[in-house]
Design a protein that fits this description.
The chain is globular and about 35 Å long. The chain is 40% helix and 16% strand. It has one domain: Response regulator (Rossmann fold, 3-Layer(aba) Sandwich). It has five helices and five strands, in the order E-H-E-H-E-H-E-H-E-H. The termini are close together. It has a five-stranded parallel sheet, with helices on both faces.
């Protein structure tokens, strides 16, 4: 049964290699008292292991939302997005591309690979934590997610 009332605690996977952005995201979750659980991996290979529950992530929860950076080591965010949207079990997980990129080609490619949203990370802390709050409000409170 889908979660349509926003009361369920959701696991959120953040795929981000910039430690400063990871810290700001964690602080945004704390500042806005976001109840959802944040899990962090730092490259594209780890993201796929987490999602497929392999290697060191065998016990990983299935996330209800993925926040995915475009520019990642080992495997880019766009490569990760393409792989997970080809997997029948993973393609239903909403993906927000959360990145510093403003490149038109990254935006077009993200949407052509079925990203649910493309958000350019604000550089200033206040705007960054507000962007995280808005993503949480929309994807984890307002919309119905698959169970």
């Amino acid at each position: 049964m889908p979660d349509c009332d926003g009361s369920k605690v959701i696991d959120v996977l953040l795929v981000e290699d910039d430690e400063g952005d990871v810290l700001m995201t964690k602080e945004a979750f704390e500042y806005h008292k976001i109840r959802n659980r944040l899990h962090v991996v730092s490259d594209g290979d780890q993201a796929l292991q987490f999602l497929r529950r392999t290697g060191p992530f065998a016990d990983a929860p299935r996330p209800g939302l993925i926040l995915l950076d475009v520019n990642l080591p080992r495997r880019s965010g766009l490569e990760v997005l393409a792989e997970l949207k080809e997997d029948p079990e993973l393609l239903v997980i909403p993906v927000v591309m959360l990145t510093t990129s403003r490149a038109e080609e990254d935006i077009l490619r993200s949407y052509s690979l079925h990203a649910n949203a493309f958000v350019t990370k604000p550089v200033d802390f206040e705007h960054f934590i507000d962007a995280i709050r808005q993503i949480d409000n929309f994807f984890l409170t307002l919309v119905c997610l698959p169970a």
